Amino acid sequence: QVQLVESGGEAVQPGGSLTLSCASSDNTREYYATAWFRQAPGKEREGVSCIMHGDGGTYYSDAVKGRFTISRDKVKNTVDLQMNNLQPEDAAVHHCWNPPVYHCTHLSTPEPDDSWGPGTQVTVST
């Protein structure tokens, strides 16, 4: 069973940049996509970005479009999220998962699950 581990979250000032990494314990070629979602205290889960493994197509929420870039490293079995010009509204715990195609293109979020683990915390000071 695939194991995903997120890393890279830190505290930054507005306008700063971070790169988050989603590391897989398995070869991801058999999976259709990898996506990032986030959740801040008191707010709903929000799909952030997704990348299709087949054709490399990428999808972004309106909130991050133009600032974030998702990419996949087939050798390392990682999916990275480069986050530029971070704003206080971006502060949240970030998680990654492997959605089916429909949920990648629609930036769906998974149901709550204990297997999410701690994710990685992005903090943006005001």
Description:
The structure is a single chain. The chain is mostly beta strands and 126 residues long. Helices cover 4% and strands 42% of the residues. The chain has one helix and ten strands. The chain has one helix spanning 101-105, and strands spanning 4-7, 11-12, 18-24, 33-39, 46-52, 58-60, 68-73, 78-83, 92-97, 120-124. Strands 2-10-9-4-5-6 form a six-stranded mixed sheet. A four-stranded antiparallel sheet has the order 1-3-8-7, with no helix packed on it. The protein starts with a strand and ends with a strand.
Secondary structure blueprint with pairings:
Blueprint lengths: L3 E4 L3 E2 L5 E7 L8 E7 L6 E7 L5 E3 L7 E6 L4 E6 L8 E6 L3 H5 L14 E5 L2
Parallel strand pairs: 2-10
Antiparallel strand pairs: 1-3, 3-8, 4-5, 4-9, 5-6, 7-8, 9-10
Work out the number of β strands.
10
Q: Provide a count of the helices.
A: 1
Sheet of most strands: 6 strands, mixed
Poorly predicted runs are none
Sheet with most strands: strand arrangement: 2-10-9-4-5-6
Radius of gyration: 13 Å
Provide the structure class: mainly beta
Shape: globular
Distance between the termini: 40 Å
Can you write the helix and strand succession as a string? Answer: EEEEEEEEEHE
What is the mean pLDDT?
93
Q: Which percent range fits the helix content?
A: under 10%
DSSP strand content: 35-45%
Keywords:
globular, mainly beta, 10 strands, 126 residues, 1 helix, six-stranded mixed sheet
Summarize the structure.
This protein is 4% helix and 42% strand. It is mainly beta and 126 residues long.
